[in-house]
Amino acid sequence: MDPSTQSQGDARRVRIAVGSVMLEGNLNLPRDASGIILFAHGSGSSRHSPRNRYVAKLLNEGKLATLLVDLLTTEEEAVDLQTAQIRFDIGLLAQRLVGVTDWLTSHPDTRHLRVGYFGASTGAAAALVAAAERPKVVGAVVSRGGRPDLAGPVLGQVRAPTLLIVGGNDLQVIELNRWAFAQLRCEKQLVIVSGATHLFEEPGALDEVARLAREWFLSYLIATEERAIGTNT
Question: Model pTM?
């Protein structure tokens, strides 16, 4: 096992060097995984978020590996809890996400897997910026209750098929997602989950998010790869 990983049952705790910082993450590699989903948290969340862990579990059941990683260090999180400013530093978050993506493409256990991003809140904007920076690596993006509008002018540069999921009762975020959706020039879809609020805490709401995400990733990470292989045979 790579010295940067520590096994914890089915999951492995990983430490990833990005620039001058060391980021902590939880990597889960189901047997015969056909792709890997990198979670980008935002707005004070972390790899311990029960919502993202639940979605990750359902993705794992669909033979998709997952990496939940904290894009901020413990010290930065402490500052952000007081100021709520670092979580809106989309450039910093995207830079960290690109660094983790590069780690995935070089790590022996994951370098053969196509990469997808699952972003929440401000992490969704970081995911879109990072996807624009790594267009040949990132095959799909899903946003859950995200702020893709914060990616600004980069939205038009995104090439990865992008799914935006918003709660039907999250009215302000719906409008922000509609604006961002109009700026995207890639394969795209906007889905509004009826009756759901920002955190998708209503019964069945998070299951619907996971179902939509899993179908999107399997369609654009796996099916695309199989089509490419078929074309070359």
Answer: 0.88
